[in-house]
Amino acid sequence: MKQLLMICGTLALLANVARSDGPKDNNPDNVRQVPPPGIEVSDEDRGRLQQQLQELKTRLTELRKRDDPLSKNLMPDVEIFYRAVDQALRYDEFFAPGDIRKAEQVLEEGLSRASALLQGKAPWMHQRGLVVRGFRSRLDGTVQPYGLVVPEGYRVDGEKSYRCDLWFHGRGERNVEVQFIHQRMTSRGRIAPAETIVVHPFARYSNGNKFAGEIDTLEALAHAEQYYRIDPERTSVRGFSMGGAACWHLAVHYADRWFAATPGAGFSETPDFLRTFQNEELHPTWWEKKLWRLYDCPDWVENLIHCPTIAYSGEIDSQKQAADIMEVAFENAGMDMVHIIGPQTAHTIHPDSAQEIERRLASLAERGRERFPQAIQFVTYTLKYNRMHWLTVDALGQHWERAFVRASCPGRACDIEVTTENVTAMTLEFPAGWCPMDLQSEVTLNIDGNRMTAPRPKSDRSWRCQLHKDDTGRWQIGPRDTTGLVKKHNLQGPIDDALMDSFLFVAPDGASTHEMIEAWTQAELQHAIDHWRQQMRGDVRIKRADEVTDEDIARHHLILWGDASSNQLIQRVLPDLPVRWTAESIGIGEKDFAAATHVPAMIYPNSLNPERYVVLNSSFTYREYDYLNNARQVPKLPDWAIIDASEGSSSRWPGRITDADFFDESWQVRPVAVRE
């Protein structure tokens, strides 16, 4: 009987693999549209929806004229309903007849809220159960929705703080704004723990809560914390399928923020998953392999010593691969991973497993997260993710190579032990009230075998010590020298990083000297605008170069399109970029390329505002082919690339990449000999 069950399980597994995206989604020359084309909407339905939209637009216009704080603060809670249906009508995003009725219900709620707000009321602020909220994203200024499940016992005027579970949704190619909002208005979803606020981020559609989806998740949580009594010591991350992948990545990158993580199914890294689940033959460039380290979770597993983790898989689910590969990573790091397996279960959560997960989570929530543990360890590959409890890594020896810190501060004893790998500057800091060390004793640091005396704690029980390596590689107390260009947190690349904070597209205000480059620029600019809306569900801020103000330069990363002859801002910053660009040639490092057929894509600190980036000729770097499987949605270009426009763009690349690399830690071009 046992052998028969094993055979049946194997057949089910193979069937599940066969139902995956499959070989048809491995052909970059024949890529289906994501989201798919919508159904035809009758004139009658379209007219009715447009009439409701117009009515809601009129009320929104009245609200925008008001100067009261209530209207200003809560406008996004109304605008999300308008934008959802407007987008669906504009871009053919009704995918089933039932979506029309969903849109009507979405508009009904928007109209109801607008009417209430015009009367100075906001009844949804007191609502329990299912609540949809909205916030204005700092990335592009668009309103973005998220859902809540508010416990029935919650009172606005109460004092009790509540546990919060972030639940990350699975892949849904037809789950754009209308469908998402309606679902969050009508369904509690997979989880509804007692006395728990559940936050459902939209996360910019279908990207595994990466890139703009990652920022959306953090902004949704911050918005919910602003309006609801969420206990930051009892906030967890959870998800299944694509949401399980999101859970893995947010757990390893922000391990000190959560009291627990419960990833289910999904994927936890790129190459093995695509070979196993997608049956894809991979031929990555050397820089793509390095960039996999941004979101490949096995490389970051040691951080999970700070985040209790409960993995779940169905026994016969092909996506069990995600937890299996993480289990090996845990073992290699000297830890044993809890892996709850639903018996004879395919791609869903077994009821008994769900109960076991909830039992374990309830116990962990009673304890809450550990605020400032005496011993910490932290692994990173980029300064994008540079914090763990009382440690901040300020500089690396080399990006995209493993960097590691282990530090211990054993109670009142003032002997701190630190060992490092590929780290050249760091800050150790306990905020007021949290320093465990004796106030009257000298602090001794033993860092990589070097002993030194550090400042004593302050009288408010705070303590801060900055450290850096000198030119000889020896650790010294004090901050590193940052008078020149250096890579630092949120100014470290790669190109995609500029789209993870407030950005402005800067279109050419003239024409390129070269006809081919002019055509390529216009096509790629339009592609970037269209696909930011289509995939990241936003509308880019865009100005011509001659319209950009000093305020724009102060507020935004600048995404500059064109060349020095077509874009005056490129001409303005070009002397400070590590590229030689004339009408005849483009040079970077030891190589030169014909300017008539080549264009640079690049990220670099903005010489007009060194706390912001300039980017040349690129939006986010993955393209249509990568939309078909979320594991493919990783950076495709490093800090700079030279694109041959003569071969045209494709579903994978903006043109043929003739050269590409990362800048060094001082934003300088690396010699060819040290690449890879």
Automatic annotation (TrEMBL):
Keyword annotations from UniProtKB, A to Z: Signal
Start and end residues of each stretch annotated as Disordered: 20-46
Protein name: Prolyl oligopeptidase family protein
Organism listed in the record: Maioricimonas rarisocia
